[in-house]
Backbone:
């Protein structure tokens, strides 16, 4: 398995590992994947309700080096972006950045799903209020 | 050989919890040890011990995401299937090498458990094997 330097770097020094309080109304939690598939990602974001800017992001991942790197990178990328900008992140951007081989593309797809799941959770918590904005 | 294998097994069990031996110890090759390290995925474990030659029990490197059918036949649960490592001992291995492996495994498993959402859930009292997982359709 040929891991790119960036994947190895994220594996050895993952960014933003940890958790945010789930009950916090400004925190969105995305949990995607399954142990039987060998990949589970939990991505959380703290979003400013007024500016819709993602101020904090944390992740935890059960998965191979590429999965860990994809989710670590995802937290790096979403921080400082608005919800709309984060939703525009595509798995192909992650594949390119980390030079993921074809057999690991699903890791980047999961990371994109985790971002969307976390934002979806945040929107759901806020109810219609967020949609109206 | 058996003594070395036992040393490896006892060493790991002394330092780590939630680790399981795959296969029965009765009919077991003396140079082989296949263990599951709960909450940590096998391939990520291998990356952390890149100075030690072992193999992962999962079939991540093939096009399918399915775990090893041998482990499945041995009764290893789906939630543990991707966490298995196979240690093969040879006649030139030494006690020092076994002790080194035990310590490295302890370091890497501990570090990866800190990164693991499954470990976090287990510590909160959630039974990970009983959960309903939200697997996205994009994966299949």
Residues:
């Amino acid at each position: 398995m040929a891991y790119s330097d960036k994947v190895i770097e994220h594996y050895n020094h993952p960014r933003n590992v940890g958790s945010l309080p789930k009950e916090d109304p400004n925190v969105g939690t995305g949990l995607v994947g399954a142990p039987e598939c060998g990949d589970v990602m939990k991505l959380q974001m703290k979003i400013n309700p007024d500016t819709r800017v993602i101020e904090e992001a944390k992740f935890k991942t059960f998965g191979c080096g590429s999965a860990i790197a994809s989710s670590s990178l995802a937290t790096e990328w979403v921080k400082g972006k608005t919800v709309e900008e984060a939703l525009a992140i595509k798995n192909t951007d992650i594949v390119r950045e980390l030079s993921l081989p074809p057999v690991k593309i699903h890791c980047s797809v999961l990371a994109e799903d985790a971002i969307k799941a976390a934002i979806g959770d945040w929107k759901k918590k806020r109810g219609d209020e967020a949609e109206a904005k | 050989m058996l003594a070395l294998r036992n040393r490896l097994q006892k060493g790991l069990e002394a330092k780590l919890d939630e680790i399981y031996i795959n296969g029965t110890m009765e009919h077991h090759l003396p140079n082989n040890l296949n263990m599951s390290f709960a909450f940590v995925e096998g391939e990520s474990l291998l990356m952390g011990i890149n100075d030690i030659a072992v193999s992962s029990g999962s079939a991540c490197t093939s096009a399918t995401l399915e775990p090893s059918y041998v482990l499945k036949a041995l009764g290893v649960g789906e939630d543990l299937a991707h966490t298995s490592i196979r240690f093969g001992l040879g006649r030139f291995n030494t006690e020092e090498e076994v002790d080194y492996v035990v310590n490295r495994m302890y370091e890497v498993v501990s570090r990866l458990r800190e990164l693991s959402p499954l470990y976090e859930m287990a510590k909160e009292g959630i039974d990970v094997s009983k959960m309903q997982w939200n697997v996205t359709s994009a994966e299949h």
